[in-house]
Here is the input.
Amino acid sequence: MRARDLGLASCHTCGLLMRLPAAGHAHCPRCGATVHMRVPNSIGTTWALLSAAMIMYLPANLLPVMATTWLGNTQADTIMSGVVYLLHHDWPLAVIVFVASVLVPLLKMIALLYLLISVQRHSPLRKAQRARLYRVTELVGRWSMVDVFVVSLMAALVQVGALATIEPGGGALAFAAVVILTMLAAMSFDARLIWDQHGERYGLVEPTR
Amino acid sequence: MPPSSQTPVTYSELVACHECDTVHRIPALAPGGTARCSCCGAMLVRNPKGGLERPIALNLAALVLLLAANVFPFLTLEISGRDQSTTIVGASWALYEAGMAPLALVVLITTLIGPALLVISSLYVLLGVRSALPLPMLREMLAWISHLRPWGMLDVFMLGVLVSSVKLAGMADMVMGPALYAFGALLLVSAAAMSALEPHILWQRLGLPGNRPRAR
Here is the structure.
């Protein structure tokens, strides 16, 4: 039995289950958060954040994330050229970085896109698999931040005057934006919509009883 | 409908799966036990071993390690006789100096402010619940903990340290500072501290506020 069918909603912050008043929302008596049947406007918010992330994905990969000046020669590195460099020195690490900073953001955006479209079409198919996809998506996204940390560490360490300097590039900023935007998009997506039946209107409040 | 529409009727003995909305009666879990949703398999509630004492101890240890990891040099780079050290804050500062204040803020929040606030607010809530003292903002802090968790990225930062040292190995000699060891320990202790603290248990211990007025 699902909470919605019983006219009950659980607080998104503390999990307390309660009967919603006719107004459709209430203040949680335990933690004070506002409680709705579903995250309000979950689909619209997720679409907005996901679109922004997809736009930022281009500069994140095309712009250099850092510029290395070594004995007077300056070399700009993108995310991908950083992976290629690692491939020549330590290939297991190169695989990890490739997965974390190239594959994960891309697959995460595709996964969210698929979840959004399937929910909007009220797809009755593969609900359990989609729920698992969402869970994995939410879990792995933060690891993409690794390249931003690499850039900041190297920029902090390699400041030896004219000999060698590393400057962060605009790509790093765009890349951090992609990671944060996809994390926010995953958080704003209400996974319970996957399980809602056709005819139950997502984001709205009237319980079907 | 309840007579007053201000305060909804609550069911603290039930829980709805946060992923698929299936209602379950909260089971009595043995220490170390986990209850999963019968419909989608998501985790419903846990009962970590060690009660409130274990997360308090682990968070205290994390607080000490967090201080050590930020006070001492983290990594030192030696390029032709010149040393360049950095701390965790230094990594963020380098971005700020390069004119990337927003990025510097992101790095500072995920590597220092987030983890520090998480440890401090966890300790505050744990000690407040354990001592049953009516500390102010206890509920707000506990709500805050759940929102804060995904933004602490100590583990990701550690992977970043590993990748940077491989990339810099061809350029210069790297010396690991004492803070790096403290940071490694912090990583393990804070992961253990997080898994020892289940917000659900604390919410149940707190229960509903006795006669706290709640507007609207």
